[in-house]
From TrEMBL:
Protein name: Acyl-CoA thioesterase II
Coiled coil residues, start to end: none
PANTHER family linked to this entry: CHROMOSOME 23, WHOLE GENOME SHOTGUN SEQUENCE, THIOESTERASE DOMAIN-CONTAINING PROTEIN
Domain Acyl-CoA thioesterase-like N-terminal HotDog: from-to ranges: 27-111
Start and end residues of each Acyl-CoA thioesterase-like C-terminal domain: 136-268
A Pfam family recorded for this sequence: 4HBT_3
InterPro entries per record: ACOT8-like_C, Acyl-CoA_hotdog, HotDog_dom_sf, Sec_Metab_Biosynth-Assoc, TesB_ACOT8-like_N
Length: 270
């Protein structure tokens, strides 16, 4: 099932009467080990949130906590609550709830663009060559997540998971294998989470790992993207101790303009 079908189903769900709607569910092909792909569940909750916010307000900040696994092929609900709508900023929370447990919790802040005397333009650049084709992670049963059939990754630096690397970074490009109808912020959210956690490459053997929390700051102005575009990604481990890692990534559009900064806390059970 294409991500567009899941986003459309979510939007229909949240816009229909509470008593009339069937539960949502995510097919197995979007699994990431024991859970549904976190980028997808975060994007679906975000998409439901977006339905409750006027189009003059753009996404500035997305915060997502993965409280527990979302089981695929099993119904779940999404609840959205607008916390505050000011003159400029709207703050909304959304939750994915399965078997009466909150599994994913998103808080998003949207803001109108305003005149300001302050302008600091981002100067972070990358020097990666444009990709010519996807550089697939090897398909190892029970190790390579199923959802990766939907996302093309083209790695240019950094190690593969579980290869005993001395590094803990990844540089590369990402895009949808089958382009969506249009590339929205929900699609970007689901794309950005596609890379394996940087610390896993330092391990010699497979071990479970789970992203616990995730924050994306969206940088503006945004330009119109083509659904076929590749986006550049560079992620670094800022620190890893006590079984938890903090990672930070820059995301650029195909013209080399920074569009987002993504940070995650990942629990590793090695
Ligand atoms: C050459 C090579 C090519 C390789 C080719 C590519 C490979 C590529 C690898 C990509 C690897 C993806 C790694 C990111 C995986 C997400 O990002 S998953 C998506 C989003 N995140 C989530 O769904 C997390 C939801 N939250 C949670 O599950 C819980 O809050 C947390 C974070 C696990 C908290 O831990 P906790 O309080 O200890 O939770 P609890 O329920 O008590 O469970 C602990 C147990 O779960 C296990 N566990 C934790 N995470 C997992 C997991 N993901 N799966 C299974 N068991 C897990 C622990 O090991 C522990 O096991 P036991 O000690 O009981 O045996």
């Amino acid at each position: 099932m294409h991500i567009d079908d899941l986003i459309d189903a979510t939007n229909l769900y949240i816009n229909s009467d509470k008593h009339d709607r069937a539960q949502l569910s995510i097919p197995k092909e979007w699994a990431q080990g024991r859970t549904a792909y976190g980028g997808l569940t975060g994007a679906l909750v975000y998409s439901a949130i977006r339905q409750k916010v006027g189009n003059d307000r753009v996404l500035r900040s997305f915060t997502c906590n993965f409280v527990g696994p979302v089981v695929t092929e099993t119904g779940f609900d999404i609840e959205v609550e607008v916390l505050r709508e000011g003159k400029n900023v709207t703050q909304v929370i959304g939750k994915a709830i399965q078997n009466e447990n909150v599994c994913v919790m998103v808080q998003a802040a949207f803001g109108v663009s305003r005149e300001s005397k302050i302008e600091v333009l981002n100067t972070d650049r990358h020097t990666m060559r444009a990709p010519t084709k996807a550089d697939f992670l090897p398909q190892i049963p029970k190790i390579t997540p199923k959802f990766l059939r939907h996302i093309d990754l083209a790695r240019q630096a950094g190690g593969l998971p579980f290869t005993g690397s001395k590094e803990s970074k990844i540089d590369g490009w990402m895009r949808y294998t089958k382009p969506p109808k249009a590339l929205t912020d929900a699609h970007l959210i689901a794309l950005i989470d596609g890379w394996p956690p940087t610390t896993l490459q330092m391990l010699k053997w497979p071990a479970p790992a789970s992203t616990m929390s995730w924050n994306i700051e969206f940088v503006y102005p945004h330009y119109t993207f083509s659904p076929k575009d590749w986006f550049a990604y560079q992620v670094r481990t800022r620190q890893a101790t006590d079984g938890y890692a903090q990672t930070e990534a820059n995301i650029w559009d195909p013209s080399g303009r920074l569009i987002a900064i993504s940070r995650q806390t990942i629990a590793v059970f090695d």
